[in-house]
Amino acid sequence: MLTAGVDVDNDWFRRFGQDPGSGPKLYCFPHAGGAASSYLALSRALSGELDVLAVQYPGRQDRRREPPVASLARLARLVAEELLAEQREQPGRPYALFGHSMGAAVAYETARLLAEREAPGPLRLFLSGRRAPAEHPDPHDQLRGDGELISAIRRLGGTGARVLDEPEILEMVLPALRADYGALATYTWRPGPPLTTPFTVLVGDADPIVSVEDAAAWQEHTGAGADLRTFPGGHFYLDSHTAQVAQLVTAALRGAALEPSRG
Q1: Residue 101 catalytic?
Q2: pTM for this structure?
Q3: I need a surface site. Which of 89, 140, 204, 208 has the fewest CB within 10 A?
Q4: How do beta strands 25-29 and 125-128 pair?
Q5: Is 38 among the catalytic positions?
Q6: Mind listing the domains of the chain with CATH numbers?
Q7: Which residue of the set 31, 100, 221, 235 is catalytic?
Q8: For residue range 192-224, what is the model confidence (pLDDT) as tens digits?
């Protein structure tokens, strides 16, 4: 089900009834097993500043009857195609990408595809709660069976972990979780040039699977510089620091829309 007040922009993007403002668009990519509604609080915090569009992956909420995408590369390709279509409809509209956990990897790979197609690039990538990509899969993503998957979700905590105590809801979300972690288990960095888009990297100082050093390694994937910001908390620090993150995003993008588009 969708949260009351949501606007269905198309199959892929959701607005939550907020004032879109006159600032850039901010496309937000959910974590593994997550849905567009995971960005409801951030969307409300940015109301009037940015036009927040949360990505709705197949296999969850109003797209629950669609099969989830079990390949991170394919998921990024599908989102990139939607962004290209939006750019054709609104040429010159500035935008940025924000991804948390798995969403950071999807946002990054989406930006790479747009750069390869020489499309107007995002003003900035906000990469949260995810270690930098490498040539080998992240060992934390190598989970065997539902038992390990559920244990991993409990360890990460956050509001999403509450569904584990509701058997009916758990049964609904397990297919998406299995697909997402299956996609992560095979995700590796493919060699290529660094992006020319600046990064803001965000991480909780007590994240059990992403150290500050892991997060800092994102700077190797851009030639435009990367800012590293740490917050008190674990993997889902964003739940407790939405206002601070909204301020950070707004400050980082303020004035950036006046600069030339980056590829």
Answers
A1: yes
A2: 0.91
A3: 89
A4: unpaired
A5: no
A6: 7-257 (3.40.50.1820)
A7: 235
A8: 999 999 999 999 999 999 999 999 999 999 999
